[in-house]
Amino acid sequence: MATDHDLAGNALLAALPEAELRRLLPSADTCSLSQGQVIYEPGDRVKHLYFPTTAIVALLNLLRNGASAEIAVVGSEGLIGVALFMGGGSTTSRVLVQRAGQTVRVQAQAALEEFGRAGVFMHLLLRYTQALITQMAQTAVCNRHHSTDQQICRWLLLTLDRSNGNELAATQDMIASMLGVRRESVTDAALKLQRAGVIRYSRGHLFVLDRPGLEARSCECYRAVRQEYERLLPEMSRR
C-alpha cells in the first residue's frame, strides 16, 4: 500500500483533501517503472491510474508502418489513464516510460468511485485533462509549423519541468523517435545548442546550462502549454 510520503510526490494527489486521500489509500500502491517500459498499448483497458512521482512518461501516437511521435509528456504534475473517467475506458496511445522512476498506482474502480463523489478529486482530474489536451494540441501545431530546432527546445523544456535538476538522460535516437524526426536533425540542433553554451551533451546525458537561453530559442508553444497548466492548476504551479 502507498504511504502518505508516496502520495505527496505527485502534485495532483498532494492537492487532495485528507478525507479523499484516506479513501484512495487502500487501493493505491507504489511501483517502479523502468525506462522503455510500455504501460499501455492503444486499445488497452485502463485498469489503473498512474500518478508518477519521479518517473516521466510519454504518450505516443502510432501509425500502421510503425512510425510514432510523442503527443504529450507526463511527470509528477499529472496522471496516466484519463480515458477511465472520460468515459472511453481504453487508451488510444502507447504509454512509454521515458525516464525510470516511481509511480503511485490506483485501482480503476476505486478511482471511479472517488471521481463519482464529485469532490476535489473530480475537479482536479478534469482541469488536468484540459491542460493535457492543450499540450497535445499545441504539440500538433508545433510539429506542423515550427522548425526541428524549436521543437527540440520545446521538448527539452517540457521534460526539464518534470525533472529534478538540469540533467536529462536522453539519447539523440530517443529524442528523434519522440519528435518523429530524423536523427541527423537532432544531431544538428544539439550541436547548435552546445556551441551556443545552452547545453552540454555527453554519452546519452544532456545538461542544460542556460535555461533562459533555451527558452529564448524555443517557439511560443512551450509558453502556451506552461501558462495553461499554471492557469488551470495553480495548486501545482506553487510547488
From TrEMBL:
InterPro entries in UniProt: cNMP-bd_dom (IPR000595), cNMP-bd_dom_sf (IPR018490), Env_Response_Regulators (IPR050397), HTH_CRP (IPR012318), RmlC-like_jellyroll (IPR014710), WH-like_DNA-bd_sf (IPR036388), WH_DNA-bd_sf (IPR036390)
Domain of life: Bacteria
Gene3D superfamilies in alphabetical order: Jelly Rolls, Winged helix-like DNA-binding domain superfamily/Winged helix DNA-binding domain
Pfam hit, one: cNMP_binding
Keywords: DNA-binding, Transcription, Transcription regulation
Domain annotation Cyclic nucleotide-binding: ranges: 12-81
UniProt-recorded name of the protein: Crp/Fnr family transcriptional regulator
Organism: Roseateles agri
